[in-house]
Amino acid sequence: MINPDDETAILSAVDAVFDREIEFLSELTSHASTRGNEQSAQDFMAAEMSARGYDVDRWQIDVADIAHLPGFSPVIGSYDDAVNVVGSHRSQSRNGRSLILNGHIDVVPEGPLDMWDTPPFAPRIADGWMYGRGAGDMKAGLASNLFALDALRHIGLAPAGDVFLQSVVEEECTGNGALACLQRGYRADAALIPEPFSEQLVTAQVGVIWFQVHLKGIPVHVAYAGSGSNAIEAAIPLIAALHEMEHRWNAAERRHADYAGHSHALNLNIGKIEGGDWTSSVPAWCVFDVRMGLFPGQDIEAAKREIEAVLNDAARSHPFLKENAPEIVYHGFHAQGYALSEDRSAGAAQAISALEQAHHTVTGVSLDRIAITATTDARFFGLYADTPALVYGPRAEAIHGFNERVELESVRRVTQATALFIARWCGLEKI
Q1: What distance in Å separates the CA atoms of residue 186 and residue 384, rounded to the nearest whole number?
Q2: Res 105 pLDDT > 70
Q3: What is the distance between the alpha carbons of residues 241 and 236, in angstroms, rounded to a whole number?
């Protein structure tokens, strides 16, 4: 237990280091850490952890080490540039519970630069918000993890249990970075992931499958289009069939309990389409990429079989595809859904209670809960490591969009709540 004087001191300590936290967040956001380009940002994270005296573990992920593990998502291409960083605080007393503070360093592509008001990797502050790709999703969370510990250090305190600061890659496409941390041996009594969900506790998250559909046509000059087969147009009825499946999966009788009141929690997205070689030639090929959501508890292999059946049934109604079946290639997310609400363990109840108290102390209101229609790395800890995973982070807007931004006062509050949560969960010892 911590007393009111300790709470006041911790809150004030976050305020005392908050200007440095904003500077840190700005610097981190300036690193264009899209997939494959995370190394400079990871260099920065490793240097900041090392400067604070943490034991720093930096390693290149080897697919062979994790491909056999539950939760692995198939990848295309090399992992030569996939590097994780973990900083470890080792308690002197070991009297408290251990904790993983996890966050991902990778950000999604910025899209056309002319759609941004200012350059996405030149962060700026206006009206209490920091703008920039990744500022909200989720470099503000990485900052709050690090500076919550800084605040404790500022008043001569440290967690009485081991704490592992994780900066991982691959969250936006596979989650294999978090999985590699488990394979590396990092375990704790709880995990906290400050994804930007507006200071609410995530009680459930959907699973996600990524796949590609490859179609072949017959190329001819457009003057004789009737004698060919247009692979791009052949995609249209297949996409329509997938959206019909999406509608069925969202039916009330198929919903997970946490999504009972959500009429469309599972979203199918055609995220990319390519095809053809020449404007005046009937396209001989087409590839489209699909993202589909799953409810917690929905079996991935059964979902894949249904996806394949839907596509093959639709193909059989097409004059060309009935003899040239689509090829389905799975890559990226093979993510199961995860519901913290289903964790009945004493550890989960205690972790949630500690966060509720911390949130209430900072904000003066009760902690709201939300079932989200996205996925996070929480599933690895909750499903495969028997570790309650709490997702709780700041308010951000336009994540994955143009002019992404995070509210700085929300970052302050989350940092304060995280510091109080660490104090309650791990206990405190003097440095």
Answers
A1: 12
A2: yes
A3: 9
Does residue 220 carry a pLDDT above 50?
no
Token pair 């990092």 in the structure block, residue = 186
Instruction: Spell out the alpha helix ranges (H) of 228-373.
Output: 231-249, 300-316, 346-363
Contact status, residue 54 vs residue 60, Cβ threshold 8 Å: no
φ and ψ at residue 292, rounded to 5 degrees: -135, 135
Percent of the chain with pLDDT over 70: 97
For 341-348, what is the mean pLDDT?
Answer: 98
The amino acid occupying position 140 is: A
One domain, residues 32 and 177: yes
Beta strands in 284-326 (DSSP E): 285-294
Mean pLDDT in the chain?
95
Q: Which two tokens stand for residue 211?
A: 């796949």
Cβ 177 vs Cβ 84: under 8 Å:
yes
Total domains, the chain: 2
The CATH number for 244's domain is 3.30.70.360
Tokens at 70, concatenated: 């539950």
